[in-house]
Amino acid sequence: MKQRILRKLSNAVEVFAPAKINLFLTVTGLRSDGFHDLCTVMVKMSIGDHVFIRRLNESNRIIIRCPGFEELENSENLVHVAVRKWLVASGQDFGVEILLKKDLPPMSGLGGGSSDAACALIGMNELAEEKLPIDTLMNLARETGSDCPAFLIRGPCFAEGRGEIVRPLECTPSKSLMGKKVFLFRPEIGLSTAEIYRQFSGKFEFSSKKWSMKRVASWKSGDLHIDEFLHNDLEKAVFARHRYFNPLFEIMEKRFGLNPRMSGSGSCSFALIPDEFDDMKEVKEEIRRAWGENAWMRSGELID
Predict the structure, then answer these.
(1) 147 is catalytic
(2) Is the dihedral of CA 212, 217, 220, 225 positive or negative?
(3) What pTM was estimated for this model as a whole?
């Protein structure tokens, strides 16, 4: 986790909170707690948010600033939830002022809120006289949000359950992806994760867990190329309701030879960029024609 620490002072720390994309995501069933069972492979990116935490001499006070996203400055923010859980678990009583500098738009399927929360746990540990062990941090992350534990694991990971059961993905194909160029693109609107899952459950069949695990195993062994492995069940629900996604995906495939996929429940999508593909200008122009000038786009790399 040390690679996330960008700057450390005696009473403050800056932590990088990376975006994630889902290379593979299947929905395998509905759980008794109302969540869905998943099988997913996640990788982190070189772009993301920055979490600044400053220690205060005010017992248990938590202040959150988020310029440009003032609606996130409240106790329901996952960062606030995670920090509160850390203070209770550690028994320490100092306060903190947290500044979130967000590059990742909310409701994008990039895990921004979960990454911020997990990295806030890392930052709290850095500021503490007595650090919590990683097992405790993982438990706090699980209690905070489904995607949070994945951001406490370095590099690619596999997740199941509702996303909270995670393990590192140590295999040659995953290691060979590190440094791979990735292009992210998103329409002006965000999508509700809960709503997309409800739509999926109401209209589409769940994937077989056996089939899902077999696909992951085939990719890990090198029998399945990354372009064949890329998959997201939730695209069905998104494409059925928001019909402006599929035409753009088809253009990107047929005209540019790319293989776009949605990350998580959207609304952000991604394309792995071939090494010889060095000019994204025409692709960006096509996205703006399809989705307007306010379409959000970023380029980055996959990181360990």
Answers:
(1) yes
(2) negative
(3) 0.94
